[in-house]
Structures are given as C-alpha cells and as structure tokens.
Design goal:
Elements: H1 2-16, E1 28-29, H2 41-47, H3 61-72, E2 74-76, E3 81-82, E4 93-99, E5 110-115, E6 120-126, H4 130-136, E7 148-154
Antiparallel strand pairs: 1-6, 2-3, 4-5, 4-7, 5-6
Helix pairs in contact: 1-4
C-alpha cells in the first residue's frame, strides 16, 4: 500500500510540474538522430500497437535517442521548431524517461528529463521506479516490466 502512495505522489509531482530539473544537473549527450527512416509514416501508423509483453532485451542508446528526438526533438535549430507541433511554438510538453534495470545500454536506472535543445538527458531521480509508476498508473503492473517508460507532462505555465 505504501508503495502505491509513493508512486501516486511521484506521478502527481511530475504531472503538476513540482518535480523539475534544476540547473546544474549534468547533461548526458545523446547520439545524433537519423532523419532518414526506412519505414513510411503511413506504414508506421498502420502497424502501431500497444504491447504489454516485453522481451528482456536492453535498448540501445541510439534507439532511445531516436525515440526521444521523434517525440520532441528539434528540427530547425535557428527557430527552435520541433518534430511535434505546438500552437505559438510554446511547447508545453516535456518528456521524462524511466529507465529500468538493464533497460538501456550504458545508462543507470532512474528517471531522466529529455532536453530537446541539446538533444541530451539529465537524471533527476536514481533507482528503478517502474513499480511506483505502475501503481500510480491505475495499478497497470504490466508497466513494471517495460525496460523504458516515456512519461509526457505538460508545463501549463508555458501556455497561460
């Protein structure tokens, strides 16, 4: 029961923006993303499925970097435009990555914040937090087996 409340509190802090990356955290550079994929957008959309059964394979840092860039990466560095549209280019969405045990090669377990301008990550919490996030997500315990979980939050003060 205590674990569930810790997860709920952690999740609420992240959603409400009370848990933020403070200046001074070390930034972890990511490999350069590719903009030349082998699958068409239409085929990717058609084949998209939610999977709740995970293989025990470690994700490469290159794959994680590509996924992060595909979610909120910069496509125009002079104007700061990203892959995902945003009204007024305010970009209120932030991406956090929960990495579990053996989730990503060369990465510690923990929660990281994706920094699109630098295409890097910053660790904000150490340790494997998959059970807490699973509990906070309506007890969807299948999430505790995912090697990596993307957490998308909105910073409302950017748009209000």
């Amino acid at each position: 029961m205590f674990e569930k409340w810790i997860g709920v509190i952690l999740f609420l802090f992240m959603v409400t923006g009370l848990l933020e990356v403070k200046n001074g955290h070390a930034s972890i550079p990511l490999p350069k993303p590719s903009s030349d994929g082998k699958v068409s957008v239409e085929k990717a959309i058609k084949q998209r499925r939610t999977i709740r059964d995970f293989q025990e394979r470690t994700l490469s840092l290159n794959h994680l970097a590509q996924l992060l860039w595909s979610a909120q990466g910069i496509t125009d560095s002079t104007k700061g435009r990203r892959v995902a549209p945003s009204g007024g280019a305010l970009y209120p969405l932030d991406i956090y990555i929960l990495i579990g045990e053996n989730g990503v090669e060369k990465m510690e377990t923990g929660i990281y914040h994706y920094l699109p301008k630098e295409h890097s990550m910053s660790m904000i919490l150490k340790g494997d937090r998959r059970r807490e996030i699973s509990s906070a997500s309506l007890s969807q315990m299948w999430m505790a087996k995912a090697p990596v979980t993307f957490i998308i939050t909105a910073e409302y003060r950017r748009i209000t």
